[in-house]
Amino acid sequence: MTRQKAARPALTIAGFGFRQQATLESLEQTLDQLIAEYGPIDQLAAARSMLPLVEALGSARNIPVIGVADAELASVTTLTHSAYSLREKGTGSVAEAVALLAAGSGARLLGPRTVSNDRKATAAVATTAAQGVGL
User: Fold this and answer.
1) pLDDT score recorded for residue 113
2) pTM of this prediction?
3) DSSP 20-49
């Protein structure tokens, strides 16, 4: 008898990058933009050095939060490039890199990062690789 595993749906993960002056409202505004464009978000993610503000957002919205290692950010190729992000974290977009790292191997961005109206926060959505039916 052959056993089949049920297909596991892909998850959407919002990654955040932000300046020290960013507020919870900055992050909420970028999250709302992502939800309006891509639909519900399953998880939030941030570099470990930036977790507290994203954890506050996750708590307020009842969305789980993932931390990724700051040292891994530079290993990710991003769609957009910010001179500030390159200088501070070694990657073109912290939000895009965090989303991809949190989503894991085979992840892809749904689009480029979005920037908050106050220009203090960015967010991007990645989707995990869907797990197909296995035998």
Assistant:
1) 96
2) 0.88
3) TT--HHHHHHHHHHHHHHH----EEEEEGG
What is the per-residue DSSP string for 43-60? EEEEEGGGHHHHHHHHHH
- Contacts by 30-38 with C-beta closer than 8 Å and gap 24+? 30/114, 30/115, 30/116, 30/121, 30/122, 30/123, 31/57, 31/61, 31/123, 33/114, 33/123, 34/114, 34/123, 34/124, 34/125, 37/111, 37/114, 38/12, 38/110, 38/111, 38/125
Q: How many whole angstroms separate alpha carbon 69 and alpha carbon 48? A: 6
Q: Which two tokens stand for residue 68?
A: 């990724």
Per-residue pLDDT tens over the stretch 65-96: 999 999 999 999 999 998 888 888 889 899 99
Amino acid at 6: A
